[in-house]
Amino acid sequence: MTMPSKILDHDAIRRAVSRVAHEVLEKNKGTGGLCIVGIRTRGAVLAERLKECIRQIEGAEVPVGILDITLYRDDLTLIDTQPVVRETSIHFDITDKKVVLVDDVLFTGRTIRAALDALIDFGRPANIQLAVLIDRGHRELPIRADYVGKNIPTSLNQNVKVVLEEVDSRADEVVVEERSKEARDKDAEKKK
Amino acid sequence: MTTEWTHKDLLDVKDLSREEIELVLETAKSFKEVSARDVKKVPALRGKTVVMLFFENSTRTRASFELAAKRLSADTINISAGGSSLSKGETVLDTARNLEAMNIDAIVVRHPSSGVPDVLARHLKAVVINAGDGCRAHPTQALLDLFTIKEKLGKIDGLKVGIVGDILHSRVARSNIWGFNKLGARVTVCGPSTLMPPGVEKLGIKVTNDIDELIRESDVLMLLRLQKERQENQFLPSVREYAKRFGVNQERLKQAKKDIVIMHPGPTNRGVELSAEVADGEYSVILDQVTNGVAVRMAVLYLLLGKGKSKVEEGNV
């Protein structure tokens, strides 16, 4: 098995988030009507960081919410143990707002599909934009990101692991590792 | 949290571990937020069917279960003893088997005889949830009481809890005693000795008939409904005497700790177990219990109904 390779380190992640913050401000011409919603768990952390970057650049506070998409997953009836449901906290009205949805890795697009359904239950935003730290390809739904920290071409036999200090209690990094044979076999079993 | 939910049915709090109870309470926290939204519905149980099979009257529990199922997008039907073939002599098990033949996913059952939910659970593939059986158990009531206390006081461990009233006939008391014991609260029960089950202290709780001392000591005071329909054997000289000796009123509450929590599973007999002022007063959490009931039942339905085949690794969906 090949060694896991580090794609981004702490500084590279910081620069990527900072660039995305500039792009968000440029595209939306400032912070008017803007709000950020992060998908639990690591998207929520990145949403906080994005807000902080925007505050440093623009001097304006943008409201941040946290979305838990568990109840909207399309595979709820397929998994053996129920995923733990965590709280969603969006304490502002998103109707007519420009919502920047934030997640760590964009892969099949199914998480984002669930997040869009969940968001729309909260109101009718003017638009929803998608910001991700990593886009690893292999979409199964017609979804694309508006802002990407880094594009990483991967194979389906790889995992992309995002480590963020706030939740993982160790230095930030993004690594790509080969999936174990057992995990792949389990997957193949599932498809049968 | 790594606790896994492995039960097919929910029959009694007795069957749950401390960790499992905590998992329900934690899950319920997220569901409480769903009921506070404008759109009070999530798609988690889309396509599932839940049957309410009620052989006893109920307002709260039945409405609460039905709302819980509907807010999770499950379909619900209601069957009560009076309007069904049960009045034509069909057995409970046959009724349940016929319902199961229509591919329902869960049965929420309330029955005046203890143990009926267990019999159904043994014979059915569908999930069985006990919504109160005889004098034995009412697990979702106990879970919502625990949730409410945790919400109000921040913890359960080490609290002193007084349960007052007709302990003998109370399934709410029994399920709550199990729950409090498992989560580390100390329970004292109080009531007329004719309404105290013999050997109740073997459950690891204290027994008293001094309501005033209990009020002074307790962090939580849970008042039970005097079940007038079960008093035909003259357990009490009169309801008035009961109210005088064990009823909680403003005057008695003056001796209580200043953040005491007053609970009642409903329906209340105002002027019997508690005065109207206490029921509507600042210490009462009776309506919070009702609000939380929906969240806790959503959590229970979610945990029991969402099982399937294989696991998806986190981060790869």
Task: Tell me about this structure.
The complex is a heterodimer of chains A (192) and B (317). Chain A is an alpha/beta fold and 192 residues long. Chain A has a single domain, classed as Rossmann fold, CATH 3.40.50. Chain A has five helices and eight strands; from the N terminus they run βαβαββαβββαβα. In chain A, the strands form two sheets. Chain A has a five-stranded parallel sheet. A three-stranded antiparallel sheet of chain A has the order 1-8-7. The mean pLDDT of chain A is 91. Chain B is 38% helix and 14% strand. Chain B is built from eleven helices and nine strands. Chain B has helices spanning 18-35, 60-71, 92-101, 116-123, 139-153, 171-183, 211-217, 239-246, 250-253, 276-279, 286-305; strands spanning 49-54, 75-80, 106-111, 127-133, 160-164, 186-190, 206-208, 220-223, 261-263. In chain B, the strands form two sheets. In chain B, strands 7-6-5-8-9 form a five-stranded parallel sheet, with helices on both faces. Chain B has a four-stranded parallel sheet with strand order 2-1-3-4, sandwiched between helices.
Mean pLDDT score of chain B: 91
Number of continuous helical runs of chain B: 11
End-to-end Cα distance of chain B: 20 Å
Total number of strands of chain B: 9
List the total number of helices of chain A.
Answer: 5
Class from secondary-structure proportions of chain B: alpha/beta
Output the CATH homologous superfamily of the largest domain in chain B.
Answer: Aspartate/ornithine carbamoyltransferase
Topology:
The complex is a heterodimer of chains A (192) and B (317).
Chain A: E1 5-9, H1 10-28, E2 34-39, H2 42-58, E3 64-67, E4 98-106, H3 110-122, E5 127-135, E6 147-151, E7 158-163, H4 165-168, E8 173-178, H5 181-191
Parallel strand pairs in A: 2-3, 2-4, 4-5, 5-6
Antiparallel strand pairs in A: 1-8, 7-8
Chain B: H1 18-35, E1 49-54, H2 60-71, E2 75-80, H3 92-101, E3 106-111, H4 116-123, E4 127-133, H5 139-153, E5 160-164, H6 171-183, E6 186-190, E7 206-208, H7 211-217, E8 220-223, H8 239-246, H9 250-253, E9 261-263, H10 276-279, H11 286-305
Parallel strand pairs in B: 1-2, 1-3, 3-4, 5-6, 5-8, 6-7, 8-9
Helix pairs in contact in B: 1-5, 1-11, 2-11, 3-4, 5-6, 5-11
